[in-house]
Amino acid sequence: MIVILKQNTTEAQMQSLTGWLASQGLDVHISKGNFETVVGLIGDTSKVDEELIKSLEMVESVRRISDPFKSANRKFHPDDSAVQVNEDAIFGAGHFGVIAGPCSVETEEQIISVAQSVKNAGAVMLRGGAFKPRTSPYDFQGLGAQGIELLLEAKKATGLPIITEILSIAHLPLFEDIDVIQVGARNMQNFELLKELGHLKKPILLKRGLANTLKELLMSAEYIMAGGNEQIILCERGIRTFDNTYTRNTLDLSAVPVLKELTHLPVVVDPSHAVGSSKYVESMALAAVAAGADGIMTEVHNDPLRALCDGAQSLTPEQFDKMMKKINIVRQAVAPGKEC
Ligand code: PEP
Ligand code: MN
Questions:
Q1: 199 partner at 20 to 30 Å CA-CA among 57, 171, 258, 330?
Q2: HSE of 111, CA atoms in CB hemisphere, 13 A
């Protein structure tokens, strides 16, 4: 349920209203926009007397929200939310950023060299997997704790904040100094993991599952938000469709405008895992920027031929640099004055 307050409502009136609503066992979220203040109510609102609220002097209108996602819902929070990682890495509410790095951390030289290249090209955050969710148990599983150490070395060397994927709650203590925790496609509905991440005060990048609907993605975000962590970046990374012959997945670009209508959370696109081939990454990255994405995440490797994971879809630093220049041009066209 949302309660829209009249523009001239005083702070004292608002406090007394929200105190009364909270005393009925509801979670109360206040969103002060430029034009209106929205009070979102989460919990069992079936016993709330709608007519009584409507009768209050300060209340403009009351609406029941039928969507199952509440905290993530734009109706609860009409303005875009921004997730700020540091001064340069901000996603949403007009801010755009590019995240880049290898699929997996392999060696100190590799991660520092890629980090320096992507930073020089304009990336605002370094990605790299330490724990890898591989289809085959015989494939490289990542360097684990040592991979996290190397990412922190790369952060020290370049100043770039770090994003890396978590596979298990048991690994959480290792992620203390990581700036953004990634929940990969395969864990989008690992609800116990999501609940645990809800207790953190750290941004979470939540990837859409291979066969998940946008509603399911938003419900997974809701799991994290219900625990109190509202710093979530959603990520479209391609879904399984009937034709994944020439591409690894199918990039659902319509997810960008649809999600941006449904939620206030920032939306980024990962074209690398969507297409699976470095040949197509640039086209889809540019299309995602044109579609209004708040950021792009791509895989970049200093030596894709020898990469231990996802070499085929990894850009070389030179290809990444060229793509960044084009991204800036498209960004300028869709959001003048707000290029990365
Ligand atoms: C990744 O980003 O390294 C990854 C494994 O991605 P996804 O979860 O989208 O497959
Ligand atoms: Mn990968």
A1: 258
A2: 29
Entry pTM: 0.96
Predicted confidence (pLDDT) at residue 340 exceeds the cutoff of 80: no
> Where does ligand 1 bind, in terms of residues with CB under 6 Å?
103, 129, 133, 165, 184-186, 207, 237, 270, 273
Tens of pLDDT, residue by residue over 162-176, are 999 999 999 999 999
Q: How many CA atoms lie within 13 A of 23 on its CB side?
A: 6
* Cα separations in angstroms, 39 against 57, 222, 327: 15, 17, 38
Atom of ligand 1 nearest to the CA of 309: 3
Reported as a single tens digit per residue, the pLDDT across 126-136 is 999 999 999 99
- Which ligand approaches the C-alpha of residue 274 most closely? 1
Closest C-alpha to ligand 1, atom 9: 185
The sign of the torsion formed by the CA atoms of 268, 283, 310, 126 equals negative
